[in-house]
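FAQ: What does the model actually see?

It sees only this:
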Amino acid sequence: MPLLHFLDIAPPVAHRLPMKTKFESYRILLTRLVAGIFLFFFITTQSYWETANEIVSFILFLIGIVLVAISSLGRMWCSLYIAGYKDKMLITQGPYSLCRNPLYFFSLVGTIGVGCATETFTFPVVFFVIFVSYYGFIIRKEEARLRELFGETFDQYMKAVPAFFPRRAGFTEPSTYQVTPKAYRRNLMSALWFIWIVGILEVIEGLKEIGLFKSLWTLF
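And it is asked to produce this:
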Protein backbone atom coordinates (compact mmCIF):
# COMPACT_ATOMS: atom_id res chain seq x y z
CA MET A 1 0.00 0.00 0.00
CA PRO A 2 1.42 3.44 -0.91
CA LEU A 3 2.52 5.55 2.01
CA LEU A 4 0.55 8.61 0.98
CA HIS A 5 -2.86 7.12 1.48
CA PHE A 6 -5.90 7.76 3.62
CA LEU A 7 -4.99 5.43 6.47
CA ASP A 8 -7.72 4.02 8.68
CA ILE A 9 -5.74 3.31 11.81
CA ALA A 10 -7.33 2.93 15.21
CA PRO A 11 -5.39 4.54 18.07
CA PRO A 12 -3.49 1.96 20.12
CA VAL A 13 -5.47 1.19 23.27
CA ALA A 14 -2.37 0.74 25.40
CA HIS A 15 -1.03 4.21 24.61
CA ARG A 16 -2.06 7.60 25.82
CA LEU A 17 -1.19 10.77 24.04
CA PRO A 18 1.22 13.08 25.87
CA MET A 19 -0.66 15.67 27.87
CA LYS A 20 -0.87 19.14 26.42
CA THR A 21 1.29 21.75 28.09
CA LYS A 22 -0.43 24.80 29.58
CA PHE A 23 1.05 26.83 26.74
CA GLU A 24 -0.82 24.63 24.25
CA SER A 25 -4.03 24.43 26.26
CA TYR A 26 -4.29 28.20 26.35
CA ARG A 27 -3.70 28.55 22.61
CA ILE A 28 -7.14 29.96 21.80
CA LEU A 29 -7.00 32.32 24.78
CA LEU A 30 -3.54 33.55 23.78
CA THR A 31 -4.64 33.99 20.18
CA ARG A 32 -7.59 36.11 21.28
CA LEU A 33 -5.35 38.14 23.56
CA VAL A 34 -2.96 38.87 20.69
CA ALA A 35 -5.93 39.73 18.46
CA GLY A 36 -7.22 42.16 21.09
CA ILE A 37 -3.84 43.86 21.39
CA PHE A 38 -3.62 44.06 17.59
CA LEU A 39 -7.05 45.70 17.32
CA PHE A 40 -6.09 48.24 19.98
CA PHE A 41 -2.97 49.25 18.08
CA PHE A 42 -4.80 49.24 14.75
CA ILE A 43 -7.48 51.55 16.15
CA THR A 44 -4.94 53.94 17.66
CA THR A 45 -2.47 54.06 14.73
CA GLN A 46 -2.51 55.06 11.08
CA SER A 47 -0.50 53.89 8.12
CA TYR A 48 2.29 56.19 6.97
CA TRP A 49 1.68 55.06 3.39
CA GLU A 50 -1.95 56.22 3.30
CA THR A 51 -0.75 59.81 3.01
CA ALA A 52 2.87 59.43 1.86
CA ASN A 53 2.36 57.02 -1.04
CA GLU A 54 -1.10 55.79 -1.96
CA ILE A 55 0.31 53.34 -4.52
CA VAL A 56 2.27 51.50 -1.81
CA SER A 57 -0.81 51.58 0.40
CA PHE A 58 -2.98 50.10 -2.35
CA ILE A 59 -0.44 47.39 -3.23
CA LEU A 60 -0.14 46.34 0.42
CA PHE A 61 -3.90 46.08 0.76
CA LEU A 62 -4.20 44.16 -2.52
CA ILE A 63 -1.52 41.69 -1.42
CA GLY A 64 -3.35 41.30 1.88
CA ILE A 65 -6.66 40.50 0.18
CA VAL A 66 -5.02 37.94 -2.13
CA LEU A 67 -3.23 36.21 0.75
CA VAL A 68 -6.39 36.12 2.87
CA ALA A 69 -8.31 34.59 -0.04
CA ILE A 70 -5.62 31.93 -0.55
CA SER A 71 -5.56 31.25 3.19
CA SER A 72 -9.33 30.86 3.46
CA LEU A 73 -9.55 28.50 0.49
CA GLY A 74 -6.58 26.51 1.80
CA ARG A 75 -8.05 26.21 5.30
CA MET A 76 -11.39 25.08 3.82
CA TRP A 77 -9.51 22.46 1.82
CA CYS A 78 -7.68 21.19 4.91
CA SER A 79 -10.89 21.14 6.95
CA LEU A 80 -12.52 18.95 4.31
CA TYR A 81 -9.95 16.23 5.02
CA ILE A 82 -9.62 16.39 8.80
CA ALA A 83 -13.15 17.32 9.96
CA GLY A 84 -14.32 14.46 12.15
CA TYR A 85 -11.13 12.43 11.67
CA LYS A 86 -8.60 14.23 13.85
CA ASP A 87 -6.65 11.81 16.10
CA LYS A 88 -8.71 8.94 14.64
CA MET A 89 -7.00 8.48 11.29
CA LEU A 90 -3.69 9.62 9.88
CA ILE A 91 -4.63 11.84 6.97
CA THR A 92 -1.89 11.86 4.33
CA GLN A 93 -3.70 12.85 1.15
CA GLY A 94 -4.80 16.13 -0.38
CA PRO A 95 -3.15 19.08 1.38
CA TYR A 96 -1.57 16.64 3.85
CA SER A 97 0.45 15.09 1.04
CA LEU A 98 2.01 18.50 0.32
CA CYS A 99 3.18 19.09 3.90
CA ARG A 100 2.38 17.71 7.34
CA ASN A 101 0.92 20.95 8.68
CA PRO A 102 -0.98 22.59 5.82
CA LEU A 103 -3.59 24.12 8.14
CA TYR A 104 -0.87 26.03 9.97
CA PHE A 105 0.80 26.95 6.68
CA PHE A 106 -2.40 28.51 5.34
CA SER A 107 -2.97 30.17 8.71
CA LEU A 108 0.44 31.83 8.40
CA VAL A 109 -0.46 33.01 4.89
CA GLY A 110 -3.70 34.48 6.27
CA THR A 111 -1.93 36.09 9.22
CA ILE A 112 0.53 37.85 6.92
CA GLY A 113 -2.41 38.79 4.67
CA VAL A 114 -4.23 40.46 7.55
CA GLY A 115 -1.02 42.30 8.41
CA CYS A 116 -0.67 43.58 4.84
CA ALA A 117 -4.35 44.61 4.83
CA THR A 118 -3.46 47.20 7.48
CA GLU A 119 -1.42 48.88 4.72
CA THR A 120 1.72 48.81 6.81
CA PHE A 121 4.92 46.77 6.78
CA THR A 122 5.04 46.73 10.58
CA PHE A 123 2.07 44.47 11.27
CA PRO A 124 2.92 41.64 8.82
CA VAL A 125 6.50 41.49 10.13
CA VAL A 126 5.36 41.42 13.77
CA PHE A 127 2.70 38.82 12.99
CA PHE A 128 5.24 36.62 11.20
CA VAL A 129 7.64 36.69 14.15
CA ILE A 130 4.89 35.93 16.68
CA PHE A 131 3.42 33.14 14.56
CA VAL A 132 6.72 31.39 13.89
CA SER A 133 7.83 31.69 17.52
CA TYR A 134 4.62 30.29 18.98
CA TYR A 135 3.34 27.82 16.41
CA GLY A 136 6.76 26.33 15.82
CA PHE A 137 6.51 25.12 19.41
CA ILE A 138 2.90 23.94 18.93
CA ILE A 139 3.77 21.94 15.81
CA ARG A 140 6.58 20.09 17.58
CA LYS A 141 4.29 19.15 20.49
CA GLU A 142 1.46 18.02 18.23
CA GLU A 143 3.75 15.88 16.10
CA ALA A 144 5.10 14.23 19.25
CA ARG A 145 1.54 13.17 20.09
CA LEU A 146 0.90 11.92 16.57
CA ARG A 147 4.12 9.90 16.66
CA GLU A 148 2.98 8.19 19.85
CA LEU A 149 -0.50 7.64 18.45
CA PHE A 150 0.46 6.22 15.04
CA GLY A 151 3.99 4.98 15.70
CA GLU A 152 6.09 3.80 12.76
CA THR A 153 3.47 4.88 10.24
CA PHE A 154 3.87 8.50 11.31
CA ASP A 155 7.67 8.19 11.27
CA GLN A 156 7.48 7.08 7.62
CA TYR A 157 5.10 9.92 6.87
CA MET A 158 7.58 12.39 8.40
CA LYS A 159 10.34 11.08 6.17
CA ALA A 160 8.23 11.37 3.02
CA VAL A 161 6.48 14.72 3.55
CA PRO A 162 7.97 18.08 4.60
CA ALA A 163 6.84 19.57 7.90
CA PHE A 164 5.64 23.02 6.86
CA PHE A 165 6.38 24.35 3.39
CA PRO A 166 4.41 22.44 0.71
CA ARG A 167 6.19 20.28 -1.87
CA ARG A 168 4.16 19.68 -5.01
CA ALA A 169 6.04 16.55 -6.10
CA GLY A 170 4.35 14.23 -3.60
CA PHE A 171 0.78 15.44 -4.10
CA THR A 172 -1.94 12.80 -4.17
CA GLU A 173 -5.69 12.82 -3.59
CA PRO A 174 -8.51 10.25 -3.54
CA SER A 175 -11.15 10.06 -6.27
CA THR A 176 -13.85 10.12 -3.55
CA TYR A 177 -13.82 11.11 0.10
CA GLN A 178 -16.32 10.68 2.92
CA VAL A 179 -17.07 13.91 4.76
CA THR A 180 -18.76 14.40 8.12
CA PRO A 181 -21.08 17.38 7.42
CA LYS A 182 -21.52 18.56 11.00
CA ALA A 183 -17.78 18.53 11.75
CA TYR A 184 -16.96 20.14 8.41
CA ARG A 185 -19.55 22.88 8.91
CA ARG A 186 -18.02 23.70 12.29
CA ASN A 187 -14.49 23.80 10.84
CA LEU A 188 -15.67 25.77 7.84
CA MET A 189 -16.76 28.67 10.02
CA SER A 190 -13.30 28.93 11.59
CA ALA A 191 -11.68 28.68 8.14
CA LEU A 192 -13.30 32.00 7.20
CA TRP A 193 -12.00 33.97 10.18
CA PHE A 194 -9.37 35.84 8.18
CA ILE A 195 -12.02 37.18 5.79
CA TRP A 196 -14.08 38.40 8.73
CA ILE A 197 -11.05 40.07 10.30
CA VAL A 198 -10.34 42.05 7.13
CA GLY A 199 -13.99 43.10 7.13
CA ILE A 200 -13.63 44.29 10.73
CA LEU A 201 -10.51 46.27 9.78
CA GLU A 202 -12.41 48.02 7.00
CA VAL A 203 -15.21 48.95 9.40
CA ILE A 204 -12.64 50.41 11.79
CA GLU A 205 -11.07 52.35 8.93
CA GLY A 206 -14.48 53.83 8.14
CA LEU A 207 -14.97 54.82 11.77
CA LYS A 208 -11.58 56.51 11.73
CA GLU A 209 -12.55 58.52 8.67
CA ILE A 210 -15.67 59.89 10.36
CA GLY A 211 -13.63 60.82 13.43
CA LEU A 212 -14.94 58.23 15.88
CA PHE A 213 -11.43 56.88 16.49
CA LYS A 214 -8.36 59.07 16.74
CA SER A 215 -4.94 57.84 15.61
CA LEU A 216 -2.16 58.41 18.12
CA TRP A 217 0.80 56.94 16.21
CA THR A 218 1.96 56.36 12.67
CA LEU A 219 3.34 53.01 11.53
CA PHE A 220 5.37 52.27 8.41
